[in-house]
Design goal:
- With 427 residues, the chain is mainly α.
- It has one domain: MFS general substrate transporter like domains (Growth Hormone, Chain: A, Up-down Bundle), CATH 1.20.1250.
- 83% of the residues lie in helices and 1% in strands.
- It is built from 17 helices and 2 strands.
- The chain has a two-stranded antiparallel ribbon.
- Helix 10 packs antiparallel against helix 17.
- The longest helix is centred in the N-terminal third of the chain and has 36 residues.
- It is globular.
- The two termini are 19 Å apart.
């Protein structure tokens, strides 16, 4: 086992084959999580018609209901993940969000559906943060961006399942059936997670060399003093405001404004979105590892460039009246966005420090999810309603174009993050 003075490197406890197996299981967990989450975007229009809901109500359903309890439950779960058995946390979370997705499928009123989405959000708070915390213990620093990129690929797989399979099921059998099919993978994975993932903290070597757990106040104080961490937090907040606020309404834009049939949207947008995300995520992870070895600041500068370049592509796409032109522009734009996210997360891991890793990442992800995932769809929906009162269905187009400009602000902030990183590095 690799050693440095006073420290056993946790990733050296496992063989490359074991690491690959752990990563495969976590990939499937992420796939299940994002399938359950993203199937909502393809069923918004049928839900709108069945319950006579406004875009503001859809924004509450698709964003705020999910994100509020996702964020509220997230910090206690993260503290548990910093101290406890992350394998158990993930298994319990899987069972909870799968069960609540069943309730989404059997809801008979809009507010019953909204309440079920609250439960899905609470359950999913136990997925991403413990998974990323395990990745950091499974893989050495020079491999983490690539490993996080593969883990992020689970969100791509979940998204494509939500859009393509979810769209097909919705078109054939109705939106309720889409939710019921979404739970199958999650329930099947509960036993797989519990029986195959390793928890390094259960090894005597880990317990002996791990630093003592910090008190919550000490963790917050430590992170508050790090300018780079706070800058990365703000950059993520603004990015997620776009990612959750605008992208959830893309299927509605294609159906309502460009008059594309639901089956065409679910197939073509779903598949091209998956392909572009796969290329961007894996390519971005590889490039981040390569550039980060030369200059650690590139972990933040890569998303800075990617987000700023993606903004005009999405604005042109939303301005277009041609379905295929939008698909092409969104394909390139999504490669850039997907390539920047793993590097952004790896940059945050580089400055937060091991004793507070899960809590630090939770503060970023859950505050970003509350701000972006909660208020993003709500703001987009309310803005669409206001503009639609003047411009009719075109109001959704103009709302999405305005929200997209936030990518430029996020890219600028990540550039500053990169300049601040060297002073705050901590593994």
């Amino acid at each position: 086992m690799e050693e440095v003075p006073g420290l056993i490197l946790h990733w050296s406890m496992y063989t490359p084959r074991q690491r690959a197996g752990f990563l495969a299981v976590l990939f499937l967990v992420s796939t299940s999580q994002f399938f359950d989450r993203n199937v909502m975007s393809i069923v918004l229009e049928p839900i709108k018609h069945e319950f006579n809901a406004s875009d503001t109500m859809l924004g509450i359903l698709g964003g705020f209901c999910f994100a509020l309890f996702y964020a509220l439950a997230g910090l206690p779960v993260a503290r548990w993940a910093d101290r406890g058995n992350r394998r158990t946390i993930i298994a319990v979370a899987l069972a909870l969000w799968s069960a609540m997705t069943v309730f989404c499928g059997i809801a008979q009123t809009f507010w019953q559906l909204a309440l079920a989405r609250v439960g899905v959000g609470a359950g999913e708070s136990g997925g991403i943060v413990p998974s990323q915390s395990l990745i950091v213990d499974y893989f050495p620093p020079e491999r983490r961006a690539s490993a996080i990129a593969i883990l992020t690929g689970g969100s791509i797989a979940g998204n494509v399942l939500g859009l393509t399979l979810g769209g097909y099921i919705t078109a054939m059998y109705g939106w309720r059936s889409a939710f019921l099919w979404a739970v199958i993978l999650g329930l099947a994975l509960v036993l797989v997670v519990r029986s195959t993932l390793a928890e390094p903290r259960l090894r005597p070597e880990y317990v002996r060399v791990s630093p003592p757990a910090e008190r919550m106040g000490d963790t917050i104080s430590h992170l508050w003093r790090k300018r780079s961490y706070l800058t990365g937090l703000v950059g993520c907040l603004i990015y997620f405001l776009f990612a959750y606020g605008a992208l959830i309404f893309v299927p509605s834009f294609l159906i309502r404004v460009l008059h594309a049939p639901l089956a065409k949207v679910s197939t073509m947008y779903g598949l091209t979105g998956a392909a572009s995300s796969l290329v961007g995520t894996l390519g971005g992870g590889w490039l981040a590892d390569r550039l980060g070895r030369q200059d650690i600041r590139w972990l933040a500068w890569l998303p800075a460039a990617a987000f700023a370049l993606a903004a005009p592509l999405y604005i042109l796409g939303f301005a277009s009246n041609d379905f295929w032109r939008f698909i092409l522009l969104a394909f390139v734009g999504n490669i850039l966005l997907s390539g920047g996210v793993p590097s952004a997360f790896s940059a945050i891991h580089s400055v937060c420090g091991n004793p507070r890793r899960a809590t630090a990442f939770a503060l970023v992800y859950f505050s970003a999810s509350l701000f972006g995932g909660g208020f993003g769809p709500l703001v987009s929906g309310a803005l669409s309603d206001a503009l639609s009162a003047v411009y009719g269905p075109q109001g959704l187009r103009y709302a999405l174009m305005l929200i997209t400009t936030l990518l430029i602000a996020s890219g600028s902030i990540f550039y500053v993050f990169g300049r601040q990183m060297p002073a705050d590095l901590e593994d």
